[in-house]
Amino acid sequence: xxxxxxxxxxxxxxxxxxxxxxxxxxxxxxxxxxxxxxxxxxxxxxxxxxxxxxxxxxxxxxxxxxxxxxxxxxxxxxxxxxxxxxxxxxxxxxxxxxxxxxxxxxxxxxxxxxxxxxxxxxxxxxxxxxxxxxxxxxxxxxxxxxxxxxxxxxxxxxxxxxxxxxxxxxxxxxxxxxxxxxxxxxxxxxxxxxxxxxxxxxxxxxxxxxxxxxxxxxxxxxxxxxxxxx
Length: 230
Description:
The chain contains eight helices and five strands; from the N terminus they run H-H-H-H-H-H-E-E-E-H-E-E-H. It is mainly alpha-helical. Strands 1-2-3 form a three-stranded antiparallel β-sheet, with no helix packed on it. Helix 4 packs across helix 5.
């Protein structure tokens, strides 16, 4: 079902209205000049039904040629759905631009995406991430840069937000551009015990993980020393 109504949209621009809907808090506002530069939208029209009408609706440029009032309700709903999909696809491209990263950085700084549910991550702020760049695969997830794992958002309203609208690259690129956001990796981890003794199979697995981690550190150190010598 569509949450769209003319009375809602008549007092606000379409994008403002869209961003105000519950569940859409994860999105940032895409700059108007980015949307209007057709170069940035290359290839998107093939992925969006009723593209011309959806673009006109999204950019508040409806005219006699794209008048929704004269269309059957079913077609209107399809165009409204396409406008939302179009915004999401453009959003995925915008958030990995310099301007988009700035906007998402501000949202992260205020922990607008929530915090990691893992106790040993000590309320680390999380970032939205897609598990695929292909729409329709999975809903948006939350990535914790401390434990480097992903979690489902706690609110069910985000279960309908496509992960492809954020993409697989965004959170990792943001942390590359703003290295000060990169938290220290946790050394503490929960150890299962029975009557005070470590569970043998878990202890063995953790030793193996520690050995792999130490070996990776050793290799990185060797590579760094090689580069210095060159």
